[in-house]
Structure formats: structure tokens, C-alpha cells
Amino acid sequence: MCGIVGYIGNKNCVPLLIEGLKRLEYRGYDSAGIGIIDEGISFIVKNKGKVSELQNRLEVLNLKANIGLGHTRWATHGIPNEINAHPHQNEEGTLFLIHNGIIENYKTIKKVLQQNGYKFQSETDTEVLAHLIDSFLRKGFDIFKATQLALQEVDGTYGLAVIYAKEPDRIIAARKGSPLIIGVGQNENFIASDVSAVLAHTKNIIYLEDGEIALITENDYQVKTIHNEEVIKEVEEISMTLDEIDKGGYPHFMLKEIMEQPESLRNSIRGRLLIDEGTAKLGGLENIIDDLLDVDRFLITACGTSWHAGLVAEYMFEQFIRVPTEVEYASEFRYRNPIINKKDAVFFISQSGETADTLAALRETKLRGGIALGVCNVVGSSIARESDSGVYIHAGPEIGVASTKAFTSQLIVLALITLLIARRKNLSIENGREIAKAISKIPDQVAEILKLNNKIEEIADEFKDAKNFLYLGRGYNFPVALEGALKLKEISYIHAEGYPAAEMKHGPIALIDENMPVVFIAPKDATYDKIISNIQEVKARGGRIIAIASEGDDEIKDMVEHVIYIPQTVAMLKPILSVVPLQLLAYHIAVKKGLNVDQPRNLAKSVTVE
Ligand code: M6R
């Protein structure tokens, strides 16, 4: 979604803004722009397309300024073009602003402004903010107050930054529903939609909360609510490093993130596994563990890949904790008037911790008295901060839009949660030890699978021109089928479906012919014999089969065109291993098709609008 960066200080802001925008490219965008103030005059440069094009234009213009804002836009209202790109200005060009989010009542506000003579240039919801703030400036308010008053009239979500040429020593920044941080420096301050944009310059971060508005100058900042109450903010020092958000020699972030899974998984379990006691130690759940032992039901809500992790957790929780568990898309959960009471524990799984639907579902849960538990990657994200308790997955920054290492870290952390609660209920120490030992081996086993990269690349070459793919799995590996299909479709634009293998007979089998590659996730587990029958059914209809199977399974080799072997582990952990070849397969197919793997069309890394 849209990226925001802003600078005020003693340096030339233009290269800093471009650098910040490049760091935000991973979020997904379709146009980019910057606005600066130089000697009391504002300059806006914006275009459809990439930040690099914006950079080329700025190099020719050779602009310099000590205050400015930069933006990458992911279109919601109005097509991606120069006019709809941010910043947006008031009519006299003295005020400009950038915005992430959606102004839901923009049509009403626009109508009133038009009746008062305001002329609009763009189709965006954002432009109403520029004119609305301007209408308060015309009444004699300063820019801080004018923005405060304007925001009181706005419904919807925003991460917002405003600069006014007549008060050129300040940036006004506000947040509701879309993340915004202040980066505190020496004789300079930054604002950004996420810390990666400012990390090269400061690690001292202030997280704005919903309803807060900040006045930021070169050497100071002041935070209030939009209703003018004072707010005292803490500066937090973050531990993320620049290395963590660079490509590290890989051609794409996605490949880097797939390849670093042994390390990210090690980080997810570090200090959390008690093998002798056959359990786990999760500081984030300590204050709430007694309540969790007594819940009537677990609910899990999430979106996309995180929802797939939730589906795996449903199998884990019901098998080992023996408490009914339901998994639901956050977007459905939030609007269906869910029945929740204080003996329901609801997990919110989110890599970014900022997904709008998941965050809204969390707030709904808290309103209704349920226990809200976050499972997030991004430290300090909204879901992490607003949850009653929770666990960080510690996968490290994930930049590629297609989620890979966050998924496997979510799964291993959900396995730790299962182990912790199940052992406090009725899982025996022997069974607990078996699972704990298996968890400890997972990072090395993933490293083994990654050695098959070249072989998987060859398979990708053979199948890159397929128009459709089917992914089939059963039990713990059914969600992996969904995840494999999602990975392929989001980066290669090949239509792919994930299905429970047994469901195939109820419809999708009609699709099978010699042009249909079918990926079976078929490791040795309780459903193995059944899935072998499903493989035979596909084979009988001429389907081309790629199988993910357990090491030592020689039987499957003769039934399928390609087999990729994964090491043995307990059933609940198999998805962590079986998904890795599918990530690589999707990656190589997309690369061979010449596509932008890290920033696929139409997608955003963090979906902060509904
Ligand atoms: O940040 P979150 O985990 O809440 O994001 C949820 C989905 O938007 C995300 O998993 C999306 O489906 C990815 N593009 C999948 O690769």
C-alpha cells in the first residue's frame, strides 16, 4: 500500500526522500511523487510508474530543500496517473499533503467544498483533505489547528503528512488506521509509514497511535490528539539493521527470504524450546496462560498466507490441545456480527501487524470481551500493540510481497504455542519431547530442502508455460496446497487452485487433462494411502504430476513425473517442510516468465485498506 516519507532538518531532503521511497517500494505502488518547500515556494514532482523515473526527473531539476514529503501511491480512488499521484495541493499551491488510507466520506466533503467554490484536479479521495484543510486556513487557523479541525470531519483511515509553505518550519503528521512513525534524529526529524524508510538515519522511533497528530520541527516534536489533548510519547530504540532489509547479493528479496529460512526459523525458536521438559517457553503468553487453559474455544483470524498458517494451527490445536478451533478470514469475521465471549481466545496472525481487516477483527474481539492474541512479525506494529498478549515470530523483515519466511516462522511459532498449552493440559512429557526435538531439527531440514533449488528450477522451466495449476493435499498439507497455489498465482499470474485432495472428485477432476499440472503434497502421514489413490485418479486422466514426498518413499516415484523429497518429521510440522519446494517452484516460474517477483502487479505488501 502507499508509502510515506518526510524530512525536516539541515540537509538537502531530495536524495533522502528518494532513498526513503526506494526502501518503501516493496510495499507495492503504481506512482510516486515528492513535494518540497524552497525559500517559501512549494515544488511538486510526480509521475505514474517507478521511483527511479521520479529520481531521473529530479536529477535534471536539481532541486534542493530542507523540508519535504515523498509518497508512493497504490491506487484506490482513480487510476494510476500523474494527476492522481500524491502530493495533492490546495488551489494556491501553498499547502501539499500525502496520504495512505481511504477517506470514506470524501464525496460528501467534496460536494460541500465544490459548493464553496473549490475546484478539484484529481479523482482521489485524498485531494479533499488538501482543500478541507485549506478551508480552515482561510478562517485564520494555523496549519496544525487547521489539520486538526479538518480531521475531525473525516471518516475513514489515514496516515497523513502536511506541509504549508507559509509555515515552512514544520511537518504535520497524523494517524488513524494507517501506520505512521516519527524518526527522531540530531538536528533532523523524519516521518514514515514504516521504519525501513528512515532506518539508515535513525533507530529512535515514535509510533503514532490512532487519533494522534504531531507537529514536527527540525529539533522538536509535539504530539496531541486531533481533539487537542496532550499526549506524552516514548522514543523506542529499534534493533532492526540495514543489512536485514537489503538483498544481500540475491537477485530478488523473495529468493533471499526463501533461502534465509533456516536462519529465520532458528530465530523464531531461539530460547523458546525446552526439549527436556517437552514444552515451550513464550514470554508473551506468560501473563495469560491460565486463562488459555480454561478457554471454551480458539478462533483464528487472518488474511492470505497468514490465514493459511491459521488453518494449519487449527489442525495442531484440535489434535493436541483438544479445544474446538475455528479459522476465519478477518474480512468476514469483522462484518458477520461474531459471537464472542470472555472464554474465547482469538489469535490474530499477521506478518505486517497492520492488515486493516485483521486489525478491525481484533478491535471487534476486544469490544466483545474475547481474549485477543497477536502472532506478528513486525515489532511494534498495530496488531502487536493492541493485542492483550501475543508472540512475535521473529522472522526478520520480509520485503518480497509474496510471504515466504514469515509463513514458515508463523507455523513454527504456532507449533510452540500448541506445545506450551497442550503440555499444560494433557500432552505427555514423552510426546512433548518428541515434538520439541522435531521442532529443533526443522531449520536444518529446511536447509537440506533448499539444496534442491537447481532441480526445482529445472521443473519450473518445464512447466512455466502452463495456463493452470492444481495443488492438492490432505490433513495438515491441505493448507499447504492453498499456500502453494497462492504463491504461484500472485507472482506468476498463472491461474492456480488449492484443494483438499479428496474434494477433487466433487468437481475439479473435470479440469484434468494432459495440459493440467497437478502438484500433490504427499508426505508419509496418516492420509498417505488416500492421497496415493488420488494420484492414481489424476494419472488415469492424463494429468501431469509433481509430488512432494517423504524421503525414502520409492513407491511414489513410478507414479509421477517429478518427485521432490522432504525429510521426515512429525505430521504437525510437515507443512513447514513441504511448503519450501512450492515457494521455490513459484519463484522460478515467475522469474522465467520475466515478471517482477518482488512487486507483483496490483499487490501490496501490507494491505492497510479494506
Ligand atoms: O501482513 P499480513 O500477514 O496480515 O498479510 C496478509 C496477506 O495480505 C498476505 O499474507 C498476502 O496474502 C501475501 N501477499 C501472501 O504472499
Task: Describe this structure as you would to a colleague.
Helix 1 runs antiparallel to helix 2 and helix 9 (304-321) runs antiparallel to helix 16. The protein contains 18 helices and 27 strands. The relative contact order is 0.09. Helices cover 35% and strands 23% of the residues. With 610 residues, it is of the alpha/beta class. The protein has an 8-stranded antiparallel β-sheet, covered by helices on one side. The chain has a 7-stranded antiparallel β-sheet with strand order 5-6-7-8-12-13-14, covered by helices on one side. The protein has a 5-stranded parallel β-sheet with strand order 19-18-20-21-22, sandwiched between helices. The mean pLDDT is 94. It folds into 3 domains: 3-243, Glutamine Phosphoribosylpyrophosphate, subunit 1, domain 1; 250-446, Glucose-6-phosphate isomerase like protein, domain 1 (Rossmann fold, 3-Layer(aba) Sandwich), CATH 3.40.50; 452-610, Glucose-6-phosphate isomerase like protein, domain 1 (Rossmann fold), CATH 3.40.50. 5-amino-5-deoxy-1-O-phosphono-D-mannitol (M6R) binds next to helix 9 and helix 16. Residues 303-306, 350-352, 355, 358, 401-403, 486, 490, 603, 606-607 line the site of 5-amino-5-deoxy-1-O-phosphono-D-mannitol.
